[in-house]
Amino acid sequence: MPKIHEMTNERVAFRTCPLCEAGCGLAITVRDNEVTHIRGDMQDVFSKGFICPKGSTLKQLHYDPDRLRHPLIRRNGVHVKATWDEAWAAVDAGLNGVIQKYGREAIGTYLGNPGAHNLSSMTFNSVLLKSIGSRQRYSASTVDQIPKQVASGFLFGSASTVAVPDLDRTQYLLILGANPYASNGSLCTAPDFPGRLEALQARGGKIVVVDPRKSRTAQQADEWVAIRPGTDALLLAAIANTLAADGLEIMHQRLGPFLNGVDEVVQALKPFTPEAVAVTTGIDAQTIRRIARELREASSSAVYGRIGTTTTAFGTTASWLVDVVNIFTGNLDRVGGAMFPLPVAGSGNTRGAGGSGKGFRTGRGHSRVSKYPEALGEFPASAMAEEISTPGDGQVRAMVVVGGNPILSTPNGERLAKAFADLEFVLSVDIYLNETSKFADVILPAPSSLQRSHYDLALLTFAVRNVANYSEPVLPRAENEPDEWEILAKIAAIASGLGVDTPPSAIDSQTIKTLLENVSKDSSSNIFGRDCEELFNELSSSGRCGPDRILDLMLRIGPFGDGFGAVPDGITLDKLIASPHGIDFGALEPRLPNILRTQTGKIELAVPQLVDDLQRLEVLCASKIDSLQLSLVGRRDLRSNNSWLHNIEVLVKGKERCTLQMHPNDAVRLGITQGSKVRVSSRVGSVDAPVEITELIRSGVVSLPHGWGHSMQGTNTKVASARAGVNSNILTDEEVLDPLSGTSVLNGIPVDVACI
After folding, report:
1. Within 10 A of 83 (CB to CB), how many other CB atoms are there?
2. Distance between CA atoms of 369 and 383, rounded to whole angstroms?
3. Which listed residue, 76, 454, 705, 737, has the most CB atoms within 10 A of its CB?
4. Global model pTM greater than 0.85
5. Nearest to 745 by CA among 318, 248, 309
6. CA distance to 153, 272, 609, 748, per residue, from 615 (Å)
């Protein structure tokens, strides 16, 4: 419970920061229900006091005068304040009007990045999607991490089974396309990621960073390898080729019984010798062989690849090859290697009988226009514009956007903006009137993160330790202000045809009763055969509802749960509330074979889709390199998180960060000087930006940060608009993507740069 100083009416509330994947603990001082300051929680079991610049700004985010506190409805082209009753009536008329006119497939949905950090979204987005009943589903995943989850699904049988580097115990870490000094990690939840890297070096370990830019992480590393953008899969294939050529005895000793398809993969990788890939990757064969052998010979090692590897034309294949290398060195599922977390609230690899399952597949349907295959229940974000603009049966005529800003964060934003302007109805759940919600007919504002409970339901699935942290709301909501889960449940009720008078509590109760029924039928569950009504009443006796009641259920049926009394010392939400600094369930432990959900009960190395894609990779390997062609990559700043923190003054002040970084050699060749304004052009668009000349980038490569471009009319984000920057996604080609996952190619975009 919050610590209270009675004489001053001051208390300290402890909660987990929801602004990135690190999951740092915060100590928030509150006086008379006003936040006075925020610092790191020194007693947090995971972060131990670490905090980055973003975490301390939850106060500014909460009190931001531009943050929406009331619904907005578009009337005569202008957004005006409305009551919640008026907003719900408009949602009912808009959604059901489109459904009645065109059918449910005419409604598209887009789920934004903040939802992964939000307990309400994690528990009720699926309810919303099911109620809408359309296959036209899109999200930030296809401009982010989905290739890793697709590759992991093929290998291990579940998209939630992602191996993370055992940072605290490894002796050799190969990082590709990641900059955790700026991002704090991705698909690898690790508070104070930089400190953990420095501890690795302090114990005599080695860090090698592969990146076209000498990022802050690369500067701290023992070695920087300046790769040509988009060729990570070739480098990984050559490392795996070298390991196979040297012999895989260690792999067979440690992992042999769990593997299928080793011989097929070894054969398929034969063309990718270090010599064969050297020219295309820009990395000499000797360096490739040395890194491969260092990985194998280290007492423990792990390969970690992130956004720079996934947002490429070979994102899924590169993600697969990361695990192939970890397997070939024998370091998968091994202390100090790449290991599998055991999430306290459970996941796809803790439910059901362990050791085998239904397996994983994609392509259960295809997009209407370009026939892109489905992956993880959604279509590529790149397809949204054409699905809206192309007439015919199934044309998207309405969009529901939850916590997302796809106009800035997905490819060819100008085309998507034109498409959104033509929609018949747009509903946005957002805290700002931004570049996407400006097109909304109705905007429903969620409470601030300080006004709702929190548990990292998704991100702790990828944590480097098995921990659990629950946060109670720090501040109360205003009278009659709905919680975010209530907003999502109400939309679900309306979309289902139940009407505006259906209370969110009805959707909530049905949701948890369905969960109980499903779990009680699972013979491997710790509540198998139990009376669902009895369990429902026990869960509800605390007075909880919504996400908290669902979380309590998930904790109690999870791998450390009490099973509603079956395991007396097991975890419940009450026990987490009594431990405001979190509970540490220990370091990661080997989980093979129980973690597998493949049909064979083995790791499927030679999945046809992945092996077949090596033929496409061979074409890249043989392609001619144009030494004069510039290639655009993105970058991240510690004070930024995509587009949604740019309205906080303390995070955007200082020197301009939305610059085009360029190597001195390229600047000289093009006659460009420091600070010059240049035009950057791709196949689909152009932007103008100031140049920052630096040797911290590979020659032939230029870089723009992601998430800027706050210059559109009709928004209300004053701080962001004053430092607008440019939208790098105007340059992103929506027709170029990773065919296995549908992920947009944000790195390695061919561009021309010229002074203006």
Report:
1. 12
2. 8
3. 737
4. yes
5. 309
6. 21, 11, 11, 20
Can you read off the two tokens belonging to residue 17?
Answer: 């920061």
Q: Residue 173: count other Cβ atoms within 10 Å of its Cβ.
A: 27
Cα–Cα distances in angstroms (integers) from residue 576 to residues 1, 11, 266, 580, in the given order: 10, 19, 47, 7
pLDDT tens sequence across 156-166 = 999 999 999 99
Which residue's entry shows tokens 């074409």? 619
**How is residue 407 written in tokens?**
């106009």
Q: Give the distance, in angstroms, between the CA of residue 571 and the centroid of all CA atoms in the same chain.
A: 27
pLDDT digits (tens, 9 = 90+) for 672-730: 999 899 999 999 999 999 999 999 999 999 999 988 999 999 999 999 999 999 999 99
Domains of the chain, earliest start first: 1-63 (3.30.200.210), 166-342+601-615 (3.40.228.10), 626-755 (2.40.40.20)
* Helix, strand, or coil (residue 439): helix
Look up tokens 């870490």; give the residue: 173
Contact, 743 vs 311, CB < 8 A? yes
Which residue carries 């009680």 as its tokens? Answer: 520
Tokens of 561: 């749960």
Q: Report strand pairing: 743-744 vs 737-738.
A: antiparallel
* DSSP3 helix / strand / coil % (the chain, rounded to 5): 35, 20, 45
Q: Which residues pair with 749 in a beta bridge?
A: 632
Q: Which of 140, 91, 133 is nearest to 114 (CA)?
A: 140
Q: 686, 675 in Cβ contact below 8 A?
A: no
Q: How is 737-748 classified by DSSP, letter by letter?
A: EETTTTEE--SS
| Rounded Cα distance, 511 and 593, in Å | 32
Q: 201 is written with which tokens?
A: 């070096």
